Amino acid sequence: MTEHQAAHQTTDEEVRELASLFATGALPPDEGAEFQEHVKTCDVCAGESRAFGDAVSWLPFSSDGVPAPPHLREKLLSRLRRPGPPPGIQVTRANEGAWYPLVPGVSAKRLYAGSPDGSVALLVRMEPGAKYPPHSHADVEHCYVLEGELHFGDLVLYPGDYQCAMASTDHRDSHTINGCMLLIVASQQNAMLPWTR
């Protein structure tokens, strides 16, 4: 971790573990000094380090420099050394972002929602047997199947298949039998339609 390395955008388990090792004095002196330099330019790691430092101050006793297992230190340090994206580029790691329910059996993780046209990029997870409500597309909708199968009426899409639905078209029957994972780029202005049986 040198000054030229990028600061983190968000905290994660590895950052918290390294900050806790630093706060308890469990990092070897050279790695502790390296982390101390890193926190000067990384608000995320600095905040985690302060939080763990406060917690350690409440402990009746703390570690006397017991080293962490080498494999753990190397794993954490390699994650911290991973460069961040260049300016203007947003990265969402696989373990980042929250899943939220859309309808029963269907949840989504928002990847990006800042487009001038009002579109949003989502990962959509559909449980086996799940249905998505009928809807009308306010703009072009892109759907790429990552896992499982997705049914639009009689049309079935499988992993690697892509569908582009034009503005003003409808999806009246969107369901999966065995479950699926989708990458969707769509307008946030899509209108729900009445259920049709």
What does this structure look like?
The protein is α+β, with helices and mostly antiparallel strands and 197 residues long. It has two domains: 13-81, no CATH class; 99-192, Sandwich (Jelly Rolls), CATH 2.60.120. It is built from four helices and 13 strands. The chain has helices at 13-23, 29-38, 43-57, 70-81; strands spanning 99-103, 106-112, 119-126, 131-132, 135-136, 141-148, 150-152, 155-157, 162-165, 170-171, 174-175, 180-187, 191-192. The strands form three sheets. The protein has a six-stranded antiparallel sheet, with no helix packed on it. A four-stranded antiparallel sheet has the order 4-11-7-8, with no helix packed on it. A three-stranded antiparallel sheet has the order 10-5-13, with no helix packed on it. α1 (13-23) crosses α3 and α1 crosses α4. The chain is elongated, with a radius of gyration of 23 Å. The chain starts with 12 loop residues before the first helix and ends in a 5-residue tail after the last strand.
